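lol ok so funny story. i was supposed to be doing the assay writeup but got distracted and ended up predicting the structure for this chain instead. priorities right. anyway since i did it might as well share w the group, maybe its usefull for someone
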Amino acid sequence: MDIKVALFEDNKLIREALHELIESSPGLRCCGTFANANNLEHDLALCNPHVVLMDIEMPGVSGIDATRIITSVFPEIKVLIQTIFDDNDKIFDALCTGASGYILKSDSPDKQIEALKAVYNGGSSMSPGVARKVMNFFVQKNVMLAPPEPTDYNLSQTEKEILSLILNGHDFRSIAEKRFISYETVRTHVKHIYKKLHVASKAEVILKARQQGIR
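and the output, tada:
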């Protein structure tokens, strides 16, 4: 089954180029292209995507606000946000929306396709440039996404072990191999971890776990 991707991008040339890139990539299909997110819920219900490739800044409803709506109304849809390198504050805002990935528009086509497949498969994707911007923002602004006091999130022993593997950089398939369980079982455990920690993405769970010393 092809991964259905909906594309939100206000720049016509970029939108057409991304459409062509997705359509020419094996295993991917572009199910809809949109110049804005002003009719977001209608558009998503119509094309029913697995993943949304979201421009961070568009006229009307911004990519950040659109992502908040998607993660709330369509939690089964993964969102990969595209941004430009200088969007310091917007990158941090995007981090808090629950998107599954954050890439730069300057990333190579191969990296963009790889990121779409990664978020569809339950992983997370963040360009090194975006990661550096996020960490620099934390340092400069002294930002904390969660209070530092210890909290008991009632994680099971298995959930703690899987969280530890995530913090050590393992993706879902690697965790499945190490734990001798199926990929879908890993996804189920990770969903439980997200729910207990009150987060919506891999980036958020890593930040919260490290801030609060959750192991």
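The beta strands are 3-8, 28-34, 51-55, 78-83, 101-104, 125-126. The chain has a mean pLDDT of 82.
back to the writeup now i swear
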